[in-house]
Amino acid sequence: MTSPTRSHRAETSRALLAPGQTLASVTRQISDLPLERPHSRFWWIGFLAAFAGVMVLLASLSWVLIRGVGVWGINMPVAWGFAIVNFVWWIGIGHAGTFISAILLLLHQQWRTSINRFTEAMTLFAVACAGIFPLMHLGRPQFFYWLLPYPDTMGLWPQFRSPLVWDVFAVSTYATVSLIFWYVGLLPDLATLRDRAQTTVRRRAYGLLSLGWRGSGTHWTHYSKLYVLLAGLAAPLVVSVHSIVGLDFAIAILPGWHSTLFPPYFVGGAIFSGFAMVLTLVIPLRAVYRLQAMITARHLDLMAKVMMAMGWIVAYGYFCEFFTAWRSGVIFDRYVAVNRVIGPYAGYFWALMACNVVAPQFLWSARLRRNTAVLFTVALLVNVGMWIERFIIVITSLHRDFLPSSWGMYHATFWDYSTLFGTIGLFAALLFLFIRFLPAISMTEMRAMVAAQKGEP
Amino acid sequence: MNRDAYGTMAAFASEEAFLGALRSLRDAGYRRVDTFTPYAVEEAERLLPPVRTPIPWIMLAAGILGGGGAFFMQWYACRDYPLNVGGKPLDSWPAFVPVTFELTVLSAALAGVAGFLWLAGFPRLDHPAFSDGRFRRASQDRFFVCIRSDDPRYSRESARDAFRATEPESVEEVPA
Question: Do B116 and A226 touch (CB under 8 A)?
Answer without folding.
Answer: yes
